[in-house]
Structure formats: structure tokens, C-alpha cells
Amino acid sequence: MYQCCIFDLDGTILNTIESLSHSISLTMEHFGYGPVDEAHTKQFVGDGFKKLVERALIFSGDKELVHYEEALAVYEAVFEENCLYKVRPYEGITEFLQYLKEKGIKIAVLTNKGHERAIECVENSFGKGFFDLVTGEGHGIACKPDPSGALYTARHFNVSPSECLYFGDTNTDMQTGIHAGMDTVAVTWGFRDRKELEKFQPKYVIDHPEKIKYVFE
Fold this sequence. Notes:
Helix content: 40-55%
Number of helices: 9
Low-confidence stretches: none
Shape: globular
Oligomer: single chain
Largest sheet: 6 strands, parallel
Distance between the termini: 10 Å
Strand content: 15-25%
CATH topology of the largest domain: Rossmann fold
Mean pLDDT: 96
Order of helices and strands: EEHHHHEHEHEHEHEHE
Number of domains: 2
């Protein structure tokens, strides 16, 4: 029986694509480039904001990354102001999380989003203290797909990796769960498609949170 559920943030529990696309587009605008649409933003995210900025610059034409260092600073400032822009939980997520809490199962967030921004997004959408643990980039733990964060979460709750279920929407998430020795749940409502996720042979693939409830019955 699973004792802990670990969730990615962007594209898994919260629909943040408008916030991310808006912020990276404003960053590119600073350098005279055009906007980055949501479809491309979905492909650029998942590995932390530095990779997002790098990929967006190359996409915009700065293949030598001349503006990279400045763009990191610009993005951080822009995102601090816009991290909650049109952010909302996915359908059924809040109800599913409440269901897990009522079952006595620990719930945690593990994200490559900056730690302070992660806390802000989670608390704005679900309330302070709703999750038992939130861990983001800059918290002293290596970015996913390094398993350090997932294993740290398991240790925090004094459970084994085999007692944890890891939920995510990208290849980075699937690799994180695999590297940590945890069963993975691929969610298809996020930023990547089913085909990409199924390459990593997740334990479960779901298109709505309620589709995984039977595991806890």
C-alpha cells in the first residue's frame, strides 16, 4: 500500500502554462524577440527555469546564447511578478488530494520551479499547509531527473521508495520516479503527450485524477 504520493507541480497539479508562456514571452520581448507560444513553452519547460530560458533564446534566434546571463535575471524578475498569472488546479485535482488526505496518505510536491515561487503557487491554489511537504529548486537538492528530491521526500516521511507513488506529466518526471525506485503515474492532461510518457513504461497512465483512486481502495 502506498503511504505517500509525490506530485510534480507544473502540468500535473496546476495548469501554469499561461503563466510560463507569458513570462518567457516578456523576457524575450526585452531583447526584441517575438513571443513564445504555449505549444513551444510546453516543450521548453520541465528542467528548471535556466533550461527554459536557454531553449527560448535558441528558439528566438540567439543560438550563441549571447543574452543568456542577462535573460536569466530578467526572467526571474518577470516571473516573480507573474508566477500566479491565470494559474489554476486541473479538474479533479483538489478533490483527489483531499481524498488522499482523508485516507491518511502523505502528499508532497517536488518541482524544478524555484522554491519560493513553488510555495507561492501551491499556497495560492490550495491554501497554506495543505500539502505535507513542498520542495522546489534552490532548496539545496539537485533538479529532477536526479532522484535526490524524491528520495529526500521519502526519508522526510520515513517511508521506503516502494511505498511512494510519483505523479508527473513529462519525461523528466518519469525518469525521476524510475531513478528513485518509485512507481510512476503518467498524467496525460499536462504539458506532454501520452506517446512521450509511455516510452518510460509508467506503472499507471491516467487522463483524470479519479482514475487512480482504485489503487487506494
